[in-house]
Amino acid sequence: RPRVSARAQGRRAILEKFGGAATGPAPHLKRAGGTAAVKAMLLEWCRARTRGYQHVDVQNFSGSWGSGLAFCALLHSFFPDAFEYSSLEPGARRHNFALAFATAEERAGCAPLLEVEDMVRLPVPDAKCVYTYLQELYRCLVAKGLVKTKKR
Fold first, then answer.
1. Radius of gyration of the chain from Cα atoms?
2. Where are the alpha helices (DSSP H) in 19-126?
3. What CATH number does the domain containing 46 carry?
4. Is the CA virtual torsion 143, 149, 76, 130 positive or negative?
């Protein structure tokens, strides 16, 4: 019986927990260079979409997302009529996460892969969970035609 790597086990656990919603890298992000390149491109995409939003400085997939404002800014950049970003406060983490996840589900059709309670329980979000969620959000936005990708 072949040995299963820790990464494969972790991936299987995520897929079981989330019902297979995120089944690989976000579409059209896969380029030569593997996972590190995909992560770097997704992070740069998030950074570009949230640039200029107050209290948001996307540098990684963990601490940068801790207040929930980065999720809100990312969604607001696509759906500016969904909520008033300027009324949000960094300290209102529970509200920010709930608003972002509800907006992602309603407007982008993004599966609710993250729980608000899980996000507020930890001072710094788990990078793998955030990365998985952002892949799924990107995939949904591509499917809705809101993100333009290069043709292969």
1. 15
2. 35-50, 69-78, 93-103, 116-121
3. 1.10.418.10
4. positive
Domain containing 93 equals 35-144
Going by C-alpha positions, the residue among 30, 64, 27 that lies closest to residue 46 is 64
CA torsion sign, 106 to 112 to 116 to 120?
A: negative
Summarize pLDDT for 30-79 with one digit per residue, the tens: 445 688 899 999 999 999 999 999 999 999 999 999 999 999 999 999 99
Q: Is residue 95 part of a domain?
A: yes
Residue 85's pLDDT band (cuts 50, 70, 90): very high
For residues 105 and 115, is the Cβ–Cβ distance under 8 A? Answer: no
DSSP character at residue 82? S
- 88-136 residue pLDDT tens: 999 999 999 999 999 999 999 999 999 999 999 998 999 999 999 999 9
Would 28 be classed as within a structural domain? Answer: no
Split into its structural domains, the chain has a count of 1
